[in-house]
Structures are given as C-alpha cells and as structure tokens.
Amino acid sequence: MSLVVRTLSEQIFTIIRERIISGDLPEEQPIRQDALANELGVSKIPLREALARLEQEGLLTSQANRGFFVRSLGAGEAEEIYELRLAIEPDAAARAARVATADDQAAARDALTALDVAARDALHEVAHRNRAFHLALVRPLGAALTFQLIERLQVLAERYVVQHLKPAGREDRAHEEHQALLDAWLARDEARVAGFLTDHIGATLVDLRTQLSR
C-alpha cells in the first residue's frame, strides 16, 4: 500500500493507530520497523515520527536499543482512565447540554448515527466513533482544557472500548445507554445527563475489572 506524500506522517499515524486499537499489532512485541516501512512504502523517518507520536498518546512504549512496543492492556490503567473520566466527563457533558446550539445538537445526533452504523457495518471504526460521540457531548461547553483532558482520556480508552464490546450483547446495551444519554442531553436535562453518563462509564469499568482480571 502506497501513501500520499502530502499527508504522509498523518496517514502512517492513522494506519498504525488503527492496528493498535484493533489488536492487529500484538502487545509487548517489538514493532518491526523495516518490515512496516516496506509494507507501507515509506522511509523509516516518517515512520519513526508516527511511532513517537503514538508513544506520546500512550499507545506505545519504547526501550533503548529495542524500539517500540504496543502497551499492554491492564486493569490498573483501565481503573485510572475510567475513574478520571468519571471525575470530569459527566459534569462537563451536563453543562455542555445547557449551552448547546442547534448545530451542536445536530452534530451529536449525527455522531450517534455514525456510531450505530459502524457497530452494524464497520466494527473497526466503533472505538473512533464512540470517542466522537462522547466528545460531541462535551464540545459545546467551550472549555478548551477540559475538552483536551477528556479527549486524551478517550484516546487512551479506545482499546478498552474494543475489549469491553467483545462479549455478545454489549453493543446492544451500549446503544441503549447512548440513546438515553443523548435524549437527556438534547432535552438539556443536566441531572439526567450527569447520572446517565456516570452510570454508563461506571458500568463499563465494572465489566472491565472482571474481564482484565482473568
């Protein structure tokens, strides 16, 4: 597969990121940079730039003289990510509901529709679409630092989202929870938004504790 030079670094980043999220790149094994560069038809310089960016996002780790590795999923990391989300995201989404414009509301509806389509037809996009939906509920708040923190946590949570949705029936439950959350958000019911989102994030964390302790 050959890449367009104009957006070379960004395309490499996106491709490798998708492979990490989907599990195509195995954990705790060194990434074979020569083979990956040959496969993508690129030099190692933009590849290393993309790998370094993925390390900054917390998806990779590096070791001297050994290169880059996919970080392992862990119960401790999941606990920290989801506890931080619980501390920040429900309140932010609730306050955003109060000030959302008609365009913001349309964007949130579209984001949930895109998530549902991905769940039905493009499972490899579910984690990304899930992040987009949750961020659409926070964006209208206009609090740049809060948004950046939540976005960072959403990026780190994506691999856990994929893990969480593996058992049968989880996707249906997630859809129902997302729809109830969106309905409350569109109605500007701040208390229900905060409550639904707290329950949604909390239930996911409970499930992950069980899954990751096996």
UniProtKB/TrEMBL annotation:
GO terms for molecular function: DNA binding; DNA-binding transcription factor activity. The keyword Amino-acid biosynthesis does not apply. This is GntR family transcriptional regulator. PANTHER family: GLUCONATE OPERON TRANSCRIPTIONAL REPRESSOR, TRANSCRIPTIONAL REGULATOR, GNTR FAMILY. It comes from the Bacteria. Residues 6-73 form the HTH gntR-type domain. Keywords: DNA-binding, Transcription, Transcription regulation. InterPro entries: GntR_C, TF_FadR/GntR_C, Tscrpt_reg_HTH_GntR, WH-like_DNA-bd_sf, WH_DNA-bd_sf. It comes from Sphingomonas zeae.
